[in-house]
Amino acid sequence: MISAAGQERRFPWYISNKLKKRGKINAMDKNRKNAEVAPENLDSLRVYATPGELTELAAFQDFLTRFVKIRTDCTVQCMLLWTEWVRFYKKKTKEFPALILEKDFRDLVTSRFSLTVSEDESRGFVYPGLKFVPETS
Question: What's the whole-model pTM score?
Answer without folding.
Answer: 0.67
